[in-house]
Amino acid sequence: MTNATVSTYKPSFSPLRLHSRSLAWQIGAVVLGTLFLALSSYIEVPMVPVPVTMQTFAVTLVGALYGWRFGALTIAAWLVEGAAGFPVLAGGAAGVQHFVGPTGGYLFAFPVVGALVGWLAERGWNGNRVLLAFAAMLSGNLLCLVLGTAWLAVMIDAEKAITFGFLPFIVGGLLKSALGAATLKLFSGNRPGDPR
Questions:
Q1: What Å distances lie between residue 28 and 24, 48, 81, 129, CA to CA?
Q2: Which of 21, 118, 160, 171 has its CA 20 to 30 A from that of 33?
């Protein structure tokens, strides 16, 4: 009989190392993450039917820095706060009605986006490889736009949804992806990239 060793997965990029921290530290990180997400919601350019905010920047950054599990959990906690009536959504909005209105698809996409970007960051698409970090952030922004626009299309029709819920956000998505990749580069320090 041979001894089998069970290895635990450790992300290659985990500046906060949440997976190895105490429960109190993890809870504190989730609380701080929801605060960061809430603050990003107040930076907005009003548009109809969906405003431009810094939410996707914050969502992708939380995913990348926290990892896919804690990132998705933190983003979901923030959305629960918003649904419960805390003024943490775009422009200080709150309430369940935002989850069934035009912005609902984008809101429901956020935990999935955070998980995707976190998963990619853990596998090398991070600040150690800035072009891959940009691609990860851009993938998250694109996924958010696709899911949000699909939801919006059910409400107003596909052509209007693309015109008002997708196209106006492309340039912002590119800029926020570049800013997110640059932020990840700062968190990576001067460590060499992963050769994989």
A1: 6, 35, 16, 29
A2: 171
